[in-house]
Amino acid sequence: MRTEIRPFRIDIPQEQLDDLNRRLNDTRWPDGVTDVGWAQGIPLDYTQELAGYWQHTYDWRAQEARLNSFPQFRTEIDGHDLHFIHVRSAEPEAFPLVLTHGWPGSIVEFLEVIGPLTDPVAHGGKAEDAFHVVVPTIPGYGFSGPAIGWSTARAARAWAQLMARLGYDRYAAHGEDTGAAISRELAVIDAEHVTAVHVTMIASATVTAETADPGNPAEQRALAVASRAQYQLTAYAMLQATRPQTLSYALTDSPVGQMAWIVERFKDWTDSADVPEDAVNRDAMLTNVMIYWLNGTAGSSARYYYEGAGTWGQTEPDTNVPVAVAVLPHDLALPVRRIAEQNHNIVRWTEFDRGGHFAAMEEPDLIIDDLRAAFRDYRK
Asked: Does residue 104 have a cis peptide bond before it, meaning omega lies within 30 degrees of 0?
């Protein structure tokens, strides 16, 4: 196995961009109901407008240049070429921190927080809160490329190797969505080196009608969110958990299909009112879509649902590593502290009044402040 760390630069051939333009131009559009909003899925008129913006206004080369402004690398771990951003802070007491995205996210989720975390003084913070930041791309996603047979546990083992290879003997971890599961796995498999974990989700800490406390408003709110997710929003998960290969044909062949599949999640899971751009920047959202499209990772990213479906609903192994939780009210699921405490060492629990599933992308300032506070006592 090759263990060297190699510099990486994104350089998409023009032929790929020309092919995307041709496919967008040749889109075969379905019919659509105009008076139901998002009730039947992403609306036709919005999708056509967004596709037109993508084709004629969105500038991939500008977004590519922004991505390339961050130092990127690849290294082989467990037989796969792993892509990651690595920004070392100039502060002598900076502490290593690995940030992990989820589905349908990417490294784009963390672009707004890297600067403040690595150079807090330049962003109104204190030098003692500086981090060395590592942002890996999960194998099967983005610039780590398609992969088969990967799970959150396997990714966590790869992260442990990556941090060791970078020379970090002690480090903290933050994750959202699948990244939260990977970060939580790190607290189990690499507890000797992980000082603390910060997550926005704990899948096993949600409530049901049987487990929710009827006299607790927060738990009743969590139950309402869980019920909406179960009956309205999780068809995507069942499809990816059972037929990821079939889905991949449509999403790998149609850029509008790939865009619609991802953008609908941004509408459903964010703190948005009418369109996802109420919560996230349009160009950033399309750059996230582009990363899936250009790398052909619709199917391999979906396979994480297939690989993990057998453990859905099961309680994770106990961990004594300190865990901080940030709860954003418009997330797909809301964890409940008393349930999380059954098998986690919860040291901080922050409930925000705004924000949704793509926490660092939607509310970077909230997440930056919470990460600084959560890890302040676990640097030494």
From this structure: yes
